[in-house]
Design a protein that fits this description.
By secondary structure, the chain is of the alpha+beta class. It is built from seven helices and 15 strands.
């Protein structure tokens, strides 16, 4: 068994695997051994094997036998010696996986994902990025999916034509490669600009320390640095694809409920304009035409006139000569 680096820089599968069967079968794969999970393999023609390969590992083979839809491979070493290359069909497509006894056991974590509605939602619309390959279908959940480009992330929640939450999905190999080449930092910066966002990994955190093509400390330090720099974008490890899919559904449902509650709170907290209050104007007593605002009221002049011996009616307007007599008897201060 020979494992070499894939000379194609544009491939997401960085390794080539060649097994001594039928003249040499060649596969593209994402790791040098299925240590923590079954590895997706892409079969390629034998001619794709480079003439001068950059060999990563060369191990003797004890047994390599095809049994039905699987190839049992036993290599000559004391540990990590048994594995199986399985030809299967998933989502209507022919696929190949490389698995070991350990990853085969871990492929089913002995849990059943709940079917209860997240946040009690009867239906949730999730936007799937049009560039997402092998997108989640959310089977068994009350979810409607819409495919269209997203500004960031792979699965999003849109409210009033605004992206309010997004989830970036990563396999372990994609996580490591995007972390080492710097693209994950830019993706985290874009996600941090959203009200709610997260990065979810289809593997366990312990798998970080079993990466063979990058120093595990580099990956662990890089993840810690990103989490400190962008604390509002959690990086969550969910072990398997099904658990990652379930977590994504629950996260976006919770974000939907938060967005509705937040909108209702904003509507209640916006101050309403205060009602316009009209200040009533003071009612002034009627004065005779030509009188100034400092003149007394008619009632005061009537009382003065009676005291001075003038005959005045009990009601109605006073005669001009009565007003003239009052002004003569009460000259302005400047005239005194």
């Amino acid at each position: 068994m020979v494992i070499a680096r894939n000379p194609d820089p544009g491939s997401s599968l960085p390794f080539l695997l060649r097994v001594p069967l039928e003249g040499g079968l060649v596969f593209r794969t994402s790791d040098t051994w299925p240590r923590t999970k079954a590895l997706f393999c892409y079969p390629v023609p034998a001619g794709e094997w480079p003439e001068d390969p950059d060999v990563v590992e060369r191990v003797g083979v004890r047994s390599c036998v095809r049994r039905g839809a699987a190839i049992d491979l036993v290599v000559d070493r004391s540990r990590e010696s048994r594995s199986q290359i399985v030809f299967t069909k998933a989502r209507g497509r022919d696929m190949v996986f490389w698995q070991s006894p350990r990853t085969r056991k871990q492929a089913r974590p002995q849990v059943r994902t709940p079917t209860a509605r997240a946040a009690g939602l009867a239906d949730l619309t999730i936007v799937v990025d049009s560039h997402e390959r092998y997108a989640y279908k959310f089977p068994g959940q009350q979810v409607s999916t819409v495919t269209r480009p997203l500004s960031c992330g792979d699965y999003g929640l849109v409210s009033n034509d605004r992206l309010v939450a997004s989830v970036e999905r990563k396999s372990l190999s994609d996580l490591v490669s995007s972390l080492t080449n710097g693209t994950l930092r830019f993706a985290m910066a874009e996600l941090a600009a959203l009200p709610r966002a997260a990065v979810v990994v289809e593997d366990r955190y312990s798998a970080v320390f079993k990466v063979g093509w990058v120093r595990p400390a580099v990956v662990a330090d890089g993840l810690a640095e990103l989490q400190v720099r962008y604390p509002n974008v959690p990086i969550v490890f969910c072990e398997t694809r099904s658990l990652t899919e379930e977590w994504t559904y629950r996260f976006l449902a919770a974000a939907h409920q938060w967005d509705e509650d937040d909108a209702a709170a904003r509507e209640r907290l916006v101050p309403k304009p205060a009602p316009v209050r009209t200040v009533p104007q003071p009612v002034t007593a009627a004065v005779e035409p030509g009188s100034s605002p400092t003149d007394p009221t008619t009632a005061q002049v009537r009382a003065w006139a009676r005291a001075a011996g003038w005959e005045v009616p009990d009601r109605g307007r006073l005669r001009p000569d009565v007003w003239a007599a009052w002004r003569d008897a009460h000259p302005p201060p400047d005239d005194i």
